[in-house]
Amino acid sequence: MRKLLIGLAAIVVLVCGVAGTYLYHLFEERRLEETLALQERSLALTEAILQTGAKPDDWSNRIFLPERALRGLVSGLNGIERVVRLGDKDPEGHYDGAVIVRVEEAVLSTNDGSFHAKLSLSAHYQADKKTSWWAGTTAFAELDTMLLPLPDKDDKGRNAIRLHLVPYAVKPKFNWGNLSLSSGDLLAELIADGAFTGWGKELVIPGPSIVSDLELDIGKANSSHNKFEVSGGYDLAIKINRDKLHRSIAAEIPVSTTNGIWMLGGKTIDEVFSHLAETKETTSEALERRRKSVSDRLRPFRDDRDLVYVRIHNTPILEMASELRQATTGSISSSNASGEIAHPALLKDDLLGEVSLVVTPRGPSFLSGLFDVQPPDIKWVPGVGLQTALRVDASLKVELHTHTNAAFVGGGFGNDIDLHAKTSLDLPVSIKVAKQTVAAGSAIVLIPELACRRITIGVTPSAPSDIAANAWLTIHQLRIDVERNIGGGKQAPSILISSLPTFYPFGKNEEPRPDEREYTNFGRRGVEVAWDPKDVVVGADYLELSAGYSIVPKTGDAGPVSKEQFDAFKTALNEAVPAIACEPDDNFILKSWNVTLLDKNLLAKAIMDAVRAGQHVAEETKKELTKLYERPFDSLKDLPDNAWREGTKGVQGAVDNAKAAADAAAKAAADLAKGIADAAQKAKDDLERSDLNPGNWHW
């Protein structure tokens, strides 16, 4: 009996040993050799990145996100399912069944110098044509993945780098409550069928990158409505012949370290790919040696800071501004002009009364011009940003109609004249960096600013000939000073980072096709990433931003912020930018000088022509003509005192030859050989036959 018991005990020990060995091998951790190729590609990519820039300072744009800020990056994976169909597909598209592996929990950790994500999995069999002996069994496992950058292509076929969770080991969970041989066999079947390795190419994790577009729209037409001082007004448009200035700021090349992830920029992904080595056959041992070498080279990227760090070099901003150095032209044009620009009194005369000049635009587009923007000097000012000044050389043409009116004599005389001018202006321009907050969120933005400057342009005739000559007078010269404020207003800001959340889906986030043998059902899962801008420092050649950072799992109908939402946010930011006061405040100052009246005989003849034409002639004019007839020499001598007086405000110059006319008449009288009496008699005889004889007047 004793021998029998000893024998039975030996058999039990043997069975338990065999069972234990079986269970150990069934539930031991298993390396997934099939993912070695992906690991090799990731190492090759990291080597290429380090060859492009061996330390953070080699990358002009860079973001560092500590491990703390990344914890939510993989938590959104909870609930994702991997579906692997078993057996052959029949003509109707059915398989024997499918094994569904579900992520129950995902936790980010660091190990061996890289980021890992441990995925707690459950797996069960779902029958279709055939019920398996493990149906109803739920197996549990722990999938160890590495967060690795992998070379890829985007939707347009361009080189891209994406973060992938690459599985490298799976270990069944030894849970007595769920322990069964069938669960172990189920996991073994999944491993053999590649259910885990297939995830390596599909578990794409959104990288916390920055891609910002900078724009400066200097070609935007500046339109305004302006009023003339007397009446009416016009519309003015100033247009610079340039497209939008554009540059991009990007930091989207990932490097993983023991305590965080860098996103690098300032060098292109194509540059990195140019250093990418060809794929090599490898073993686990060779891969470990290579991984250690890469880890040593990553030492300069290890950072102990616990806050998000963003540094952007000023190169893209300076490059955008440097485009201003290219030859640039522009135009000035008016439309819808009507009314009176000026209506000054030129002088007063005893025959004509007050003589005034009415100046009007000759047509709706009376004002036109061209200008050239000269290449500016550009400088970067710490604490402010970019500063420069635009040198503008402009030429202007003003097409006018002038009309001379007299108070005592009806009618008048009109002339069309063209005035021209050239001027230069220095207009300070700056691009400032600031934080802006609106109802929808906050952002660090670049704000272009144009200073406000007042310019005065004196427009004069291009030809030296008289401006206007008629039967009353001659205007020898005319000048109009055009005054206007230039610049000011506001330009749309460019966003560097904002608190507007961005949704990043896992994988392609598409509905699986029914005929696929295996696929990952992401269920529209992803993460929502949002910055919380705090402050910005403008350094000697860089911008340094401080910001909070959040990653929140999203499911269901979550998606990117709509274009309408983003446009509304940009509009709100634009409205929040304080405008630099610079109303056009146009002013036309009419200046005339060197106005000459005709002598009295010719003036009297012109008045009689007006009478014959049916024009009104005032009583004051009749009296002066009678006086001129009765006492011609006295009238000539009195002429400097009563013939003219200087005009009103805004009129420069003088009627400078009236006195000379009187002096000439007096001299002529003194030179008469037969004396004053004969000269007077002859003058009287001449007057009897002239239009100055009241007997010849017909009012």
Proportion of helical residues: 10-25%
- Which shape, going by the Cα principal axes? elongated
The overall strand count is 33
Low-confidence blocks of residues: 2-28, 176-182, 633-680, 686-699
Radius of gyration: 46 Å
Strand count, sense and barrel status of the largest sheet are:
16 strands, antiparallel
Distance between the termini: 167 Å
Tally of discrete structural domains: 2
Q: What is the count of helical runs?
A: 12
Strand content: 35-45%
Mean pLDDT: 75
User: What structural class do the secondary elements suggest?
Assistant: alpha+beta
Q: What does this protein structure show overall?
A:
The protein has 699 residues and is of the alpha+beta class. Helix 2 runs parallel beside helix 5 (284-297), helix 9 (619-630) crosses helix 10 (632-642) and helix 10 packs antiparallel against helix 11 (658-670). The strands form four sheets. It has a 16-stranded antiparallel β-sheet that branches. Strands 1, 3, 4, 5, 6, 7, 8 and 29 form an eight-stranded antiparallel β-sheet that branches. Strands 13-14-2-15-31-30-28 form a seven-stranded antiparallel β-sheet. Helices cover 23% and strands 42% of the residues. The chain is built from twelve helices and 33 strands. The chain folds into two domains: 1-207 and 260-301, no CATH class; 216-245 and 313-496 and 570-635. Strand 22 (413-438) and strand 23 (441-450) form a beta hairpin.
SSE layout and pairing:
Elements: H1 2-27, E1 30-31, H2 36-52, E2 61-66, E3 81-86, E4 97-111, E5 114-127, E6 138-153, E7 159-172, H3 181-192, E8 204-205, E9 210-216, E10 222-227, E11 231-240, E12 245-251, E13 253-256, E14 260-265, H4 269-274, H5 284-297, E15 309-313, H6 315-322, E16 328-340, E17 345-349, E18 353-361, E19 367-374, E20 378-381, E21 385-406, E22 413-438, E23 441-450, E24 452-461, E25 468-469, E26 473-487, E27 494-498, E28 502-505, E29 518-521, E30 526-538, E31 542-554, H7 563-576, E32 587-597, H8 600-612, H9 619-630, H10 632-642, E33 645-646, H11 658-670, H12 675-688
Antiparallel strand pairs: 1-7, 2-14, 2-15, 3-4, 3-29, 4-5, 5-6, 6-7, 7-8, 9-12, 10-11, 11-16, 13-14, 15-31, 16-19, 17-18, 17-33, 18-21, 19-21, 20-21, 21-22, 22-23, 22-24, 23-27, 24-26, 25-26, 26-32, 28-30, 30-31
